[in-house]
What we know:
Blueprint: H1 8-20, H2 29-37, H3 42-67, H4 82-110, H5 120-146, H6 154-160, H7 168-171, H8 174-183, H9 211-225
Helix pairs in contact: 2-3, 3-5, 3-8, 4-5
Amino acid sequence: xxxxxxxxxxxxxxxxxxxxxxxxxxxxxxxxxxxxxxxxxxxxxxxxxxxxxxxxxxxxxxxxxxxxxxxxxxxxxxxxxxxxxxxxxxxxxxxxxxxxxxxxxxxxxxxxxxxxxxxxxxxxxxxxxxxxxxxxxxxxxxxxxxxxxxxxxxxxxxxxxxxxxxxxxxxxxxxxxxxxxxxxxxxxxxxxxxxxxxxxxxxxxxxxxxxxxxxxxxxxxxxxxxxx
Length: 228
């Protein structure tokens, strides 16, 4: 016997809403349930679970990379091509950091204004983009570690290694910060309808100390070593 609950209109509305969340198909059940049920604070819950699911494999890959547990071959860089390779790597670094601020701004906006629902599809899209950006950062770190370069360029390569990747740990702490925000729901957090409690989360993303001056000094030593 099949027991159906709710009116036909209720069932139709439920089916339409489920169809509108097609982009969550294939994700773990907890993610689909959040999108379907939309509990209090569902926007933060959805972003936390999506980011956790999407970035966990990437962070495992990065940890294995740092530990030296795998290898991927990259083309050898000849001495005459090294400065071009170095310029390409620094260009990639600048392009990887640029979109992050905009992505976190989009994520914040996707949660909706105070008292208004968020946009589930936008939350999903931004989380995917953040995961893709983290994957590209790890790809960059692989190129730095696995490319065979001239001996004179080792100091410069060493400076670049983890200049970007060292920030990944702070990037993937966002789900925990969102979990903490959800935990405030229903508690006496001091906020009111007139003066709501504002949750702030700063994602630090920095180059190593004195990176610029150290890099310039290493460039000069490289030039002296190869008589540039």
